[in-house]
């Protein structure tokens, strides 16, 4: 089997009094994502896409939100741990694609920094990581600025660190 593919999804509630982290970038906004960790829904979706491609379950099994060890943890640490599992698998990242759905704030100015941070955490070239951002057209909780959701897809190809 030369290729493996995985998908990931995550949604977090937006609340006042929390910093907003997305794609390992702190984004100035009046609210932030609630979560046991720093709430970085983009990184969580990406972790799930990679774990899915590896056939290794989901982020909740690897980093349970009932474990005090993960209280307030930077999600970049979780992504690095998942990257370790990719390396062990004998596959390497072929490409990654991400969709962020947020009514606010405007994310275009931060996409390049997200790409730089994530590609550096994963040890991949920026050209294999694509980040898309869109609104929810004012619909539902995401459109009502109560939450931010992310989807991710990961493709792995055989060959790489073992
Ligand atoms: Mg999450």
Can you tell me about this structure?
The protein has 162 residues and is α+β, with helices and mostly antiparallel strands. The protein has a single domain (2-158), classed as 2-C-methyl-D-erythritol 2,4-cyclodiphosphate synthase (60s Ribosomal Protein L30, Chain: A), CATH 3.30.1330. It has 5 helices and 7 strands, in the order ββββαααβαβαβ. The chain has helices at 41-54, 59-62, 75-88, 111-122, 140-143; strands at 3-16, 20-22, 25-27, 31-33, 91-101, 129-134, 147-158. The strands form 2 sheets. It has a 5-stranded mixed sheet with strand order 4-1-7-5-6. It has a two-stranded antiparallel sheet with strand order 2-3. Strand 5 (91-101), helix 4 and strand 6 form a beta-alpha-beta unit. The longest helix has 14 residues, at 41-54. Magnesium ion binds next to strand 1 and helix 1.
